[in-house]
């Protein structure tokens, strides 16, 4: 009978089967063999050789131990391998610092200084009432208190000078354009420089190897009369600037789209980068030859502008990690044209009748954001992508800004937005996690220009856009992307939010918008208090009151033992948004909670705290626009979400995925 073994067993023909060798006879039991006496000497020799080999092995082991005492420490080597694998994660967990709390801490310190000054004044006022009772008594003041008063005096003087400087530069208090053109004349928008700066720039350019075609470009501009004619100490005439004025000849130009090459590709892709100041940016190239600059991606506005000229000024922009801000130089672009007042695109900015023009150029713009502002002149410029070119694109040449780390590209609903000028029917992006802020990691923004009706992607949840409220006194409401949020649930429990907050009202209040330019999701106080109360009700951790006072965020909770952080995070309830049509957005905990430094628990072992990343009026310095949306979905909650703005079908789609 053939024996079957493991593996492949082949059947052989009978003639090919080998005869099995005959088994040797079993040896007789010990003591019944006559030759046993002859094998004793052999056994002795085998035992001797075995002892010798064992002795040799022992000597080799001793020699190896002398060279390396841990040569046989297999458990130690295994433990060290495991420790090396775990060490980077533990070290990353220990060295990771909160990114969004530093600015909040600074603002909190400023508020504390204000409170101390107010308190000192109050005490001094109360003390003055009793001065007549102790006029003949000696007064003693400690050196520490004197030092404190001196620090307060210096700080108040610095604040006074800062406010005085800001008041002097406040463009909203200017009666006419004289102050604006005073800065223009130095020169900001038209390429003029003083003699020393021009000489230095020529020396730098002379050292650079340039192509023949590029070196002849300034000569061509001089032949056309575009040369720099401004003298030292003299303000150039804006109408005689090196830029052309685009207006009269473009009066009957198409209003809704820019001039785009006939061979327009169906999609265009560009990279998105995340930053520690809470925003996402893309790079765009303007001008001829192209000049590439970073722009903040903002779906809550519709105007695109870049820092412009060598004299661009930005106040309070030190929160950006970049030491310098890249500016666009109109003089170096042969396609730059100042927008004319009669150009229909001028009304996109000022929303006024072009027949009221009192000047040849489009009046300067001044735009206010939730934090900061910018101002400058409108240009008609060429926008260059890797696979397409857009001519006569309306863009702002900003000469001053505040709290703006870079230019802004508006993706809102207005006529001047990038999707409208490019005639897009859809755009989508995937927001990278903020843990990769200020790194080379990036995700993608995709612009769709298909002429045919586009189909939705698989596994996307869709909800329709809501009609924007139309208010003449608040035109900014017309550019928002309103969505129909119907319910908010915390840990599976529905929060009873009043109807007036969930739907846009005739006066512009209420409703929910999606804004990639906002960091933390904003909620009106009437909504925030309900959501925060439900969080406090379900979370069993101790409140970190000290962290709340330090950061301005609330509620915050103590979490114990960093090595158990991930297990403790599981105990927090999930936050879920329910939209009209059945779409539900389930936010992972890393999109709802943020590490906020050390905890302040009394039980001991509390070395961390987490805070809810939802803000309202007065929380983390947020201020609501009067009568504005009740809920603004920020980019922190959209981390690792693929989102789609289907403009043709008027709907908003999303799904959770890794964007790394």
UniProtKB/TrEMBL annotation:
Alphabetically sorted, this entry's keywords are:
Aspartyl protease, Coiled coil, Glycoprotein, Hydrolase, Protease
Q: Which organism is it from?
A: Fagus sylvatica
Active site, UniProt feature: 298, 515
Output compositional bias ranges, type Basic and acidic residues. Answer: 54-66, 217-235
List, as start-end ranges, the regions of compositional bias called Low complexity: 10-21
Q: Which residues form the Peptidase A1 domain?
A: 280-655
CDD domains according to UniProt? pepsin_A_like_plant (cd05476)
Protein family according to the UniProt entry: Belongs to the NSRP1 family. Belongs to the peptidase A1 family.
Q: Keyword Protease: yes or no?
A: yes
Q: Which GO terms describe its molecular function?
A: aspartic-type endopeptidase activity
**Pfam families attached here?**
NSRP1_N, TAXi_C, TAXi_N
Instruction: Outline the segment boundaries, as ranges, of region: Disordered.
Output: 1-70, 202-262
Superkingdom in the source lineage: Eukaryota
> GO biological process annotations for this chain's record?
proteolysis; regulation of alternative mRNA splicing, via spliceosome
Looking up SUPFAM superfamilies in the UniProt record yields: Acid proteases
Query: What is the name listed in the Swiss-Prot or TrEMBL entry for this protein?
Result: Peptidase A1 domain-containing protein
Bias type Acidic residues, positions: 33-42
